[in-house]
Write a structure and sequence with these properties.
heterotrimer, A mainly alpha (about 500), B mainly alpha (about 130), C mainly alpha (about 140), A: mainly alpha, two-stranded antiparallel ribbon, 21 helices, globular, C: mainly alpha, elongated
């Protein structure tokens, strides 16, 4: 029953709608639902690892004709990581979400968002990928606008318009591809596209997909909506978005370009690598100029997307494996950093780096909690970021792509600079009006969520060996489309 | 017919893109709606248009007739329409809220997210000073 | 704002007729033109007509339950229709049908339950948006 990670959040979203009047019931439901979802995701990961690529024909209509859900190792890993982030966010929002937003339906929307994300990971055909993207987007639209403060609605407008434009492009590409191949099933497409003798059409469609998913995952020339909108909602929502939304876009890029357009790829690796380099650099330079904690972290999201794109652009199994491990690392570390920013805001009442200070003396535990994911993001051993970047760099050396490796290492250094800046401003320097405001108490839920996520992030670094093995298996499946085709359609490829 | 639909889709795309480049939110909303119509027409055109040949297997045979109308694009369009219905409804509500909070529908006024709001006022004062030149 | 007497009087007669038509569309939906979404839209426009012609407050008293309850129950019905075949060991959303058609309603099966769910979701969502907009305006 591989639909379980999809049905559980949907079911709990419905239960939360029915329990609209009672915030207490919703809290309990949310915790139970997120825990069950995590269980289901890890169970699926175990099964996929043991049995290979699984698929489920919805409504018992066989594969190329009906809708299928497909879970390969890459989807399963993504499901498991996003479930962990979902669980952490569920814990965090027990303390970090205000009553008003809960009354306007925060918890049901939370689960609708997870439904969309999980659906996108499991979708076995392009149109369903589009539908789940839209489910996810609708939920995120409402979440980002919920509350209706001035910066929030402004951010929401930019977010909504650009993402709708991306959806339009995505759907156009789907329509053109259907015209060319007469099918939208991913496995069937993977079989038919290499056989096409079309000239420019496939390239055109591939680039349309690149632009559509590029907007959604905020790659270089298309990322402007992200730093303009992500810092506006409450930090719980930002953390959830940063962990999940852009990563679904990257997931779609990995899926489409390994499965469908791999044979057409002569020009693609170079294009992707150039985009990756620019994405890393602009992201990290943008972050260097910021004095707002959340905006700074938002720019780092963009910069990290560049590394994920680098894994795809290098396009060898080793690079894909490194990319997948990087994805796991960045989802965990980034969400944990946003959680820390939320706690800082809760104790000090500000996100502005200039107003903050002396937190190391006053909250040493929090300083440590910041330091772990921050150094991991910058790539210091023995944290997960180090192994992720090491794997990427080694894959780059194997392919003699020295330019992108150089850019990656340089950006890594700048990331370290940026994290040091936050450390200096928030934790190290003397606070200007010393002792002016007493520390405000922070809910135990928020501490628990942040601590848990930081621990998982550290564990991902300590268990780098097994996790990289798992990523390598997932990358092997991605690199050989015939496995996917055979699993879904049966018979010899 | 295919040509006609293709041209119509092209015109709708052009009109939609023109509209989303405007500064007024309402016009952008209209532009997004036009773009979604354009995509629906494109989807409609993505399989050959064959009238009066439903994809049904006649009684007594085991395969559909040689040439039949493809039902998939219509299913895709139906779903796309439902989604754009929901999205448009949300966008209208959001724009009402924007107008209620900001008192304007001009995108140039919405810069709070990129620079701190106090500077917005300063910047607009500077613009006013520059205008007489 | 002055309300038109003609529209209000006509709406009182039209609304029940449209509601009945919407149920008709819902029931014939599986093999012929109609279905849950279309039926739901017709029902929602019937209620919307009533709300505009008479008053949103009157529409609110007319609805027996909160719109969001309709949405929740509709989604639950759709989800149940997908889970029923799972209980019998078939894949999610497989259509199950009763052998004998019921009088008036016709063939009964899980797709009908799914359509009914869609119907309620559509009515619920439209009412939810409409009523919250209208009530905000009234403030």
């Amino acid at each position: 029953m591989i639909a379980l990670p999809l049905l559980l959040p949907l079911g709990f979203a419905i239960l939360n709608v029915l329990a609209w009047k009672s915030p207490r019931a919703q809290r309990v439901l949310t915790l139970v639902g997120a825990a069950l979802q995590t269980g289901a995701a890890f169970w699926l990961l175990g099964r996929v690892r043991a049995e290979g690529i699984l698929h489920l024909p919805i409504g018992n209509w066989p594969a190329p004709f009906g809708i299928v859900l497909t879970a390969d190792l890459f989807s399963a890993i993504m499901l498991a990581v996003s479930a962990v982030v979902g669980l952490a966010a569920a814990l965090y929002s027990q303390g970090g979400m205000d009553e008003r937003r809960v009354r306007y339906g925060y918890y049901p929307l939370f689960f609708f968002l997870l439904t969309g994300v999980n659906g996108a990971f499991l979708a076995g055909d392009l149109f369903n990928l589009y539908v789940w993207f839209e489910v996810m987007l609708m939920a995120s639209f409402v979440l980002i606008a919920l509350g209706g403060e001035r910066p929030q609605v402004e951010g929401a407008i930019k977010y909504v318009i650009l993402n709708l434009l991306a959806s339009t492009l995505f759907l156009s590409a789907v329509g053109l591809l259907y015209n060319l191949c007469g099918t939208l099933n991913l496995a069937d497409l993977a079989r038919r596209i290499p056989a096409l003798e079309a000239g420019g059409e496939v390239t055109l469609i591939a680039v349309l997909f690149l632009v559509a998913f590029g907007i959604k995952s905020a790659i270089f020339p298309l990322f402007f909506w992200l730093p303009a909108s992500y810092h506006t909602p409450p930090v719980t929502i930002t953390a959830l978005f940063s962990g999940l939304l852009t990563k679904v876009g990257v997931y779609a890029l990995y899926r489409v370009f390994t499965l469908l357009f791999a044979s057409d790829a002569a020009y693609l690796p170079t294009l992707l690598l150039v985009l990756a380099g620019f994405t890393m650099t602009t992201g990290v330079l943008g972050a260097a100029a910021q004095m707002d904690f959340r905006r700074l972290l938002s720019f780092h999201i963009v910069s990290q997307i560049g590394y994920l794109l680098m894994g795809l652009g290098l396009f060898s199994p080793a690079a894909l494996a490194a990319g997948i491990y990087f994805m796991v690392h960045v989802i965990l570390a980034k969400t944990a950093l946003f959680f820390v920013a939320g706690i800082v805001r809760q104790t000090e009442g500000s996100y502005n780096l200039k107003e903050l200070g002396s937190l190391y003396a006053r909250r040493p535990g929090l300083a440590l909690l910041f330091l772990l994911p921050a150094l991991s993001l910058a790539g210091l051993p023995p944290l997960s970021g180090f192994f992720a970047k090491l794997a990427l760099v080694l894959a780059g050396f194997d392919l003699r792509s020295y330019a992108i490796v150089g850019v990656g290492l340089g950006v890594s250094l700048l990331t370290l600079y940026s994290m040091t800046k936050v450390w200096n401003e928030v934790f190290w320097k003397e606070r200007k009006e010393a002792g002016a405001a007493p520390l405000r108490p922070v809910s135990a839920w928020m501490w628990a969520a942040t601590l848990g996520l930081a621990a998982v992030s550290v564990a991902a670094g300590l268990l780098a060996g097994p996790l990289l093995d798992l990523s390598a298996q997932a990358a092997a499946q991605l690199a050989d489309p015939s496995l996917y085709i055979q699993a879904v359609l049966g018979g010899a490829p | 017919m295919t040509w006609l639909l293709a041209i119509a889709a092209g015109v709708l795309f052009a009109a939609g893109i023109y509209m989303i480049l405007r500064r007024s939110l309402v016009k952008i909303l209209v532009g997004l709606a036009l773009l979604s119509y354009a995509v629906n027409l494109l989807l409609f055109n993505s399989a050959p248009l064959i009238p009066a040949r439903p994809p049904l297997i006649p009684l007594g045979s085991s395969a559909p007739p040689e040439v039949y109308a493809d039902p998939v694009p219509q299913a895709l369009i139906l779903t796309a329409i439902v989604i754009s219905f929901g999205v448009t409804a949300f966008a209208v509500v959001l724009m009402r809220q924007v107008y209620g909070t900001l008192g304007t529908d001009d995108l140039n006024e919405m810069r709070c997210t990129d620079i701190p709001c106090k500077e917005v006022e300063i910047a607009s004062e500077e613009e006013q000073m520059e205008e007489p030149l | 704002m002055k309300r038109s007497i003609l529209l209000a009087t006509a709406a009182r007669y039209l609304m029940p007729l449209m509601l009945i038509f919407s149920v008709f569309l819902l029931l014939r939906g599986h093999n012929e033109i109609g279905g849950g979404f279309v039926g739901g839209l017709v029902a929602a426009s019937a209620l919307m007509l009533y709300g505009i012609a008479i008053s949103p407050a009157a529409l609110r008293t007319l609805l027996p339950v909160e719109p969001r309850l309709l949405v929740g129950l509709g989604l639950l019905a759709a989800l149940t229709s997908g889970l029923l075949p799972v209980l019998t060991g078939r894949p999610f959303l497989t259509g199950l049908w009763l052998k004998t058609p019921l009088p008036v309603i016709g063939k009964v099966g899980t797709p009908l339950l799914f359509d009914t769910g869609v119907y309620f979701v559509v009515v619920g969502v439209v009412m939810w948006i409409l009523l919250s907009l209208a009530e905000e305006e009234a403030k």
